Amino acid sequence: MYPENPYYLLTPGPLSTSKSVKAAMLRDWCTWDDDYKEIVQQVRKDLLEIAGVGDEYTSVLMQGSGTFSVESVIGSVTSTNSKLLVLENGSYGRRIAQIAERLNVNCITYSASENEQHNPVKLAKILEEDQAITHVALVHCETTTGMLNAAERISEIAKEHGKIFILDAMSSFGGIPIDMIEAGIDFLISSANKCIQGVPGFGFVIAKKAELEKCKGRARSLALDLYDQWEAMENDPGKWRYTSPTHTVRAFVQALAELHEEGGVLKRYERYQENHAILVEGMREAGFETFLPDYLQSPIITAFKNPEEIAYNFNQFYDLLKTRGFVIYPGKVSDADTFRIGNIGHVFPEDFRELIKAVKSCIYWKETTF
Predict the structure, then answer these.
(1) pLDDT surpassing 70 at residue 281
(2) pTM of the model
């Protein structure tokens, strides 16, 4: 038997999972077997229910990390006549642009600083002046900082100008309510090991059927052909084209059940909000500053500025917290010295109260102790 987890993973994924999610991986499954394929089909159906969409949408599962699913969308929904506009204000928006560049997709970016949202007026002007733009892509929760971008407003502007809207909801789907129909989202991308609290191994795309049907033959990759993956799962229901991450899928089924038991997306969102509130209040008491103002902050992950004291060292601080049962995340902001703490996963308000106690016990660089 393996020991209990020695620490909580306070990261944006992989993240801490329940014992029952981990236990679900103890059985082996055959990817060709009808019992397993029925499980896959139920997962696809459950994702549509979480998204609150009907028959005009479909879901596709894709092997690999969340970035694999993002690349499958960028490489499959755009054609040689397409032009993609990526709105970026962090590393993960820049990654979408990097994917497009690597795939030779015609792409431009509208960049905002990492502590601000995009200006709707400026976006509308870009779309009016560049009629060649066909697709607009945005990261919903930019985990570089924890920024929650205004997906509904951005999508509204994109749809007013007749554009296909792609939302990277990697760190928000299942943890923040999203109205796909009201927002007019054409392609939503997320992953098993984020707010639904499964384990790494696959991502998924929720797509408008009418738009996905146009993607046949467009893909720039064999393995990441979103249309062909969808067609395979439709023609032989639940069958993946290539080896399925069976254990991860089964863990995801358990995670979906636990999301339902918790009360759904809204209840999970409320827990994440409470986790975040306890975290921010306690960290500020301990002398830390948040990178973002509160009105831009998601409850998913929070970036804090590293203290300027000469005696402070992030790696030492990280190691001390780890010995006390908490693993945090280095910073990713390009022009500020930060670290990040995730609020998602199988973690609860009482865990964050213990985290704050641990943080205060680790403040070796201050003369005053708590």
Answers:
(1) yes
(2) 0.96
